[in-house]
Amino acid sequence: MTRINLDAVIKYVLSKQGSDGGYLSFQYLDMFESSAEDTYYALSILETLGVEPPRRDRAVEFLRHLQHEDGTYSSVEVAFYSIMALSLLGASPRDPRGASEYLMKALASNMNGDYILPSFEAEQLIDESGVLKSKDATFTLTSADLTPVPIRTSMIVLALHKLGGLDGEAEEKAYPLLKDALSNGGLGTPVSLEVAYWALEALSTVDHLPETSNLVKWIYACENIDGGFSSTPGSKTAFIENLYYALRSLEILGSRPKYVSSHLEYVTSLQNANGGFRRSRELGASALDYTFHAVKSLVLLESL
């Protein structure tokens, strides 16, 4: 069994719930609205650890209001995380049909290269109560901040599947983009573990994995003998998310990591005094996404 302090993990996660019912890693006097992404991470951690999330109704209300009245969302990312978080709460979007239509439109735009960009700039920076909003509502993104197309495509597929709206048409549109992501446009290997993970997660949902023996070898080439995985072979970027991406990818592919004990020691070394986890041995601030990846990695390592 791992030596992490589970009680401290739970306390850390619960401390990140805001007055709106959602969660945010970095709050200051509750001035920032919660984010769909952090809310998903927090709820997933609590579910994994068998903890009933507090103020469930407020969390559902917060997540449902991230969907616009016309059924759309400010971005594919917000749609994905809010839909997945609502599912953890046993709830659905306020307009499931509108959500599915928005996601299908986004998928079609990915195919055509005419992407639906986040509409944060249309929102107001300060709400009517004088509260500064989070990136889910108002943060203006540059092209460098946009999620890569294969990952956005995977988010669309997974969200549609959760909504029960993933049909043959959606699979036909998504499959070439997802398969191509595993070979980086025909170059033979993925551009990163992150892209490989998202593509595999979506492809496993549609139950249509391509031939992947070379991919398994590539993932093993990212494994570090002293714990963790690098984003690409030889890159030495042993961030906690890369460990999760690799472990989950190997699980989908029916394989196991080589250095289990080293990975367990690596994860254990990342827990901070406040109960949360940091991104690497060198980077010190706790965050909900790092904590999510740490907890989920321990599950995949069969130590939790």
UniProtKB/TrEMBL annotation:
<dbReference type="InterPro" id="IPR008930">
    <property type="entry name" value="Terpenoid_cyclase/PrenylTrfase"/>
</dbReference>
<dbReference type="GO" id="GO:0003824">
    <property type="term" value="F:catalytic activity"/>
</dbReference>
<feature type="domain" description="Prenyltransferase alpha-alpha toroid">
    <location>
        <begin position="193"/>
        <end position="301"/>
    </location>
</feature>
<protein>
    <recommendedName>
        <fullName>Prenyltransferase alpha-alpha toroid domain-containing protein</fullName>
    </recommendedName>
</protein>
<dbReference type="InterPro" id="IPR001330">
    <property type="entry name" value="Prenyltrans"/>
</dbReference>
<dbReference type="Pfam" id="PF00432">
    <property type="entry name" value="Prenyltrans"/>
</dbReference>
<feature type="domain" description="Prenyltransferase alpha-alpha toroid">
    <location>
        <begin position="7"/>
        <end position="76"/>
    </location>
</feature>
<keyword id="KW-0677">Repeat</keyword>
<dbReference type="InterPro" id="IPR016648">
    <property type="entry name" value="UCP016175_prenyltrans-rel"/>
</dbReference>
